């Protein structure tokens, strides 16, 4: 724990102990009695600094308490005012309670038990060492009841341990919530990266596989330029993703200012018989346009992978009442084995993307053949 955080956390305790020490000094009526002040300040300082090294602070506090009792005993002067039968004062008792509470809150179980026992032993030693200093006459005037003091000491011990356990539970709860938040953020980043890999890289790799298969079926068909272009696009997409991971910038296709032009470019790249229809009456924000491009790209990729004998793919974009409507329909026949296999994440990724934007998504088979993808996305 750094000093700034320690000061922010411990200033109420430091202020309270300082006030108690100042109030106690008013009861000192002999010059020798002032010798207790340095020892009391040391014990209080240890309790304030305890969060840095709780177990070591408990050892130091126990040692300091015993030392204060011994040298006050050698001086023949009682600590004033007495909080128990002898020896311990209010400030020392409060500092000991704070040290125990911090120890229980911060340390492991066995360290908390061992440190607490040491502090209790030191407080008992202070009472025993300081007992003979107070005169019999003073005891008769007080008429102390040892059992009541013992009961009070037990109450204070329970309060100190209970406070430490309460804050320990709060710390554990906050740590669990923080861990859950971090895990959720990491999972969100992983899902976003998975969608980018599936939507971008898989799109171009699928094109490579399609061209290679076409070349095998028709030896006269020159597929090398198409494979080279798709390979270069895949490498570019991979470099963009790596750059995103390094720089922390947003991933996604480089959407231009015209969503219509970008969709036209995607349709041309797919080499599918795409028919486009546009009726955009509202301006589409850049982030939304990028997501729409992803949806169109993944839909066309699915058509390439999962269908054959495709005679037409209808892509329509329209907007009305602040909602953008996307529909991609093909009339292909479902193939038994998708090109390059299938991880089954395409529709899942599209649905997640649409739902994150507050829209609705649906996909399913057409009759008699084909597939339909529809998405409705709020523009604002």
The average pLDDT is 80
Strand percentage lies at 5-15%
**Low-pLDDT segments:** 249-254
- From N to C, what is the helix and strand string? HHHHHHHHHEHEEEEHEE
Largest sheet: 5 strands, mixed
Distance between the termini: 45 Å
Given helix and strand content, the structural type is alpha+beta
Q: What is the molecular shape?
A: rod-shaped
The count of β-strands is 7
Q: In oligomeric terms, what are we looking at? A: single chain
Question: What can you see in these coordinates?
Answer:
By secondary structure, the protein is of the alpha+beta class. Among the domains are: 3-144; 258-380, Heat Shock Protein 90 (2-Layer Sandwich). The protein has eleven helices and seven strands. The protein has helices at residues 3-25, 36-49, 54-75, 90-106, 109-130, 136-142, 146-217, 224-247, 259-270, 286-306, 346-356, and strands at residues 274-279, 307-308, 313-320, 323-330, 333-334, 360-365, 371-378. It has a five-stranded mixed sheet with strand order 1-3-4-7-6, covered by helices on one side. It has a two-stranded antiparallel sheet with strand order 2-5. A hairpin with a 2-residue loop joins strand 3 and strand 4. Helix 4 (90-106) packs antiparallel against helix 5, helix 7 (146-217) crosses helix 10 and helix 9 runs parallel beside helix 10. The longest helix has 72 residues, at 146-217. The radius of gyration is 38 Å and the shape is rod-shaped.
